[in-house]
Amino acid sequence: MDFSAFFRALLFCAFLSAAQGLHIAPHDIDKLLLPAYDYIVVGGGVAGLVVAHRLSEHPDVTVLVLEAGSLDSSPDIITVPGLVGHGIVPAYNWNLSTTRQEFLDNNTRYYDQGHVVGGGSILNGLLMTRGAKADYDAWQSLGNPGWSWHRMLHYFKKSERFAPIACREHVDPLHIHPHMPVHGTKGPLQVGYPNFFYNQSANFLQGIAELGVPILSDPNAGVSAGASVAPSSIMARNQSRADSRRAYLDHVLHRPNLHLASQQTATRVLMSDLATGGFPLISKRLKKAYAVEFRTSAESPQRNAFCNREVILAAGAILSPAILQVSGIGPASVLEELDVPIQVNLPGVGANFQDHAMVHAFYNYTESGLFSSRNLTGAVLQEVEEQYFTNRTGPWTHPLISTIAFPHLSHLTSMWPSLLSNITSSPESYLPLGPGRHPTLLKGYTHQLRQLKSLLSDSTVGAIEIMADSVGTLTISIQHPLSRGFVHALSSDLLANGSVARNIHLDPRYCSHPLDCDLILQGLRFNSRLIATEAMKKLQPRPESPWNITDENILNEAIRSQVVTEYHPSGTTSMMPLNMGGVVNTRLTVYGTANLRVVDAGIIPLLPAAHIQAAVYAIAERAAAMIKKDNPSPMASGIPGPPLGPGIVKGSGQ
Predict the structure, then answer these.
(1) In terms of DSSP H, where are the helices of 219-312?
(2) How confident is the model at residue 284 (pLDDT cuts 50, 70, 90)?
(3) Which has the closest alpha carbon to 257: 8, 22, 31?
(4) Which segment of the chain is annotated as a signal peptide (predicted)?
């Protein structure tokens, strides 16, 4: 008889029977943390909470979520859709910033990321768009069999509890006719529409149609090229923000096998040798993740949470690669600079950073009788606030943005074929110097450029996004960026100097490929035509300088001073073949490891023309299903468990 296994099972049952599903506060961490967990999820954002929810459905496995942020207190600025964009609670933000952007104006950019249970779903603009079928088919074409639109659709639906619009008077004027076969109605996340719309939404859609852009009755049915009123992550009953915490965590924290440890920053994944593997480009031996090192603060002692089965990194596209690097997984040159022992030499970790670069262009609506969010002051604001909290109607149910367009390249310029003619030329000149030009990364980028040329030529795919608010802002963002940046840890201790933000080198390299800024310029020209349509002229738009200037040199300079992030970081732990710079395989396991996965936006190999929260929910749903399938018996893993004994190891914190 295997007495070790028997004793382990007995210990597990004893802890499980005594435990309560609970939120472990920092002061209780030594008392309540188990000696070991089957699964440790690093990051309690969108992906992490989805995975934890699904894995803990099996009552015989234990799941720990380590989250650096706290539980939010549900302030109105977060929960009320009409207050989106009015600010961020500082405690819920990582307060990251980029390096100086050499291809823009040589200034840095703020880069808000969720530092709170629920992650970005607590802070984002609520929009739920998926992108085009072709976006996901491109993932499959990059060497990821099974990651097509057809396969992803099941998981989009699984995550979603879609509610058709309740205000029927808006259905026809705003062309809101969702195609219900592509939507889920029983998933955890509520998705729907507000109970109020500004009249400007109809003007925008009519103006777009005058320019030949199709109006989509459902932007999530596989075609993104067009304009629509997009659904949002809004709870239909009370017209408040729907986020991953409320959807996937709060109602299952009674599960005795699910623990959430908040205000705990993961600083390293501890690795050991496991067995001979089949990855000659990396090593002859696979690595096994057996624990996660974490601390409450820079001054607090180090603790280790031990893992029986798998560690799932879900810290996002900026922090997950940094955690991998300080754990010894990443480009050898970066690890050597950090003085970190190399566990797996993996050049793609932190490379291939992609984001939707964005410019806010202002065309103030001046029509005297127009009602917009600018009217929400004084007595009107008090009335709107009372209306919202009394019966959940009125302007506060409407998020900052609901009306959007994704014009195809042909809608922007008749010269679009010439824009794409040299898109695949000299790929090496657009990658960063140093480890970013590793031969595998160059090969992967070359394949990506071919896919991007195909996507930008596809009539179903949007090239840019235009987001319209109620006051005259027509924000432009590129949807298929060609620029590639990177993320590197600056210290082997992510809490050195008291802040993770000080130890992250984030360089998006916006517009390092000139076509990205060229497409924003095309978007500005499109906006000029849009405000001249009959429908939009009724709003009496008055462009602010420099958006009222036609001089191309002035506009290009303005673009480079105004580009900011749309907060869609991705690609830094890409799902692609190893010889193309990939970091995870199609089952999201990190190359060279046996039981370490990444499940967040970092695995996205090419950004879709969409707001990415819908994709991240679907990715996490699919990942959870894969993890369950790969671990069919909770007590029969082929991966050895950690040594029996305390799960908490106090140390110097170094």
Answers:
(1) 244
(2) low
(3) 22
(4) 1-21
- Which of 53, 170, 398, 568 is the catalytic position? 568
505 catalytic? Reply is no
What pLDDT is attached to residue 231? 97
Per-residue DSSP letters for 528-567?
A: HHHTTSHHHHTT-EEEPTTTT---HHHHHHHHHHH-EE-S
Show Cβ contacts of residue 292 under 8 Å, excluding neighbours closer than 6 positions: 40, 42, 66, 266, 268, 269, 270, 304, 305, 307, 311
pLDDT in tens, 203-214: 999 999 999 999
Average pLDDT, whole number, for the chain?
Answer: 93
Measured CA to CA, the distance from residue 615 to residue 621 in angstroms comes to: 10
pLDDT given for residue 167 in this prediction: 76
Q: 194: helix, coil or strand?
A: coil
Query: What token pair was written down for 299?
Result: 């001054």
Per-residue tokens: 513: 């490929």
Measure the CA angle with vertex 582, ends 309 and 109; round to 5°.
100
Map 608-651 to HEC letters. Answer: CCCCCHHHHHHHHHHHHHHHHHHCCCCCCCCCCCCCCCCCCCCC
Rg (Cα) of the chain, in Å, rounded?
Answer: 24
Total-model pTM: 0.94
User: Is the four-CA dihedral 32, 34, 39, 42 of positive or negative sign?
Assistant: positive
**What pLDDT was estimated at residue 92?**
97
How far is Cα 571 from Cα 576, in angstroms, rounded to an integer?
Answer: 10
pLDDT band at 169, cuts 50/70/90? confident
The residue count of the chain comes to 654
Is 86 annotated as catalytic?
no
Q: How far is CA 278 from the centre of its chain?
A: 31
- Which of the 8 DSSP states describes residue 127? B
CA angle 412, 417, 420 (to 5 degrees): 95
546 cis-preceded (ω within 30 degrees of 0): yes
- Residue 581 is classified by DSSP as T
Cβ 589 vs Cβ 604: under 8 Å: no
Interatomic CA distance for residues 369 and 377, integer angstroms: 16
Number of Cβ atoms within 10 Å of the Cβ of 278: 7
- Alpha carbon distances (Å) from 510 to 231, 357, 419, 484: 29, 7, 18, 8
10 Å CB burial of residue 168 (0-12, 13-18, 19+) is: exposed
Element housing 189 (H / E)? strand 189-191
116 is in an annotated binding site: yes
Which one of the listed residues 175, 398, 488, 611 is annotated catalytic? Answer: 611
Written as one letter, the residue type at 421 is S
Exposed/middle/buried for 429, CB within 10 Å: 0-12, 13-18, 19+?
A: exposed
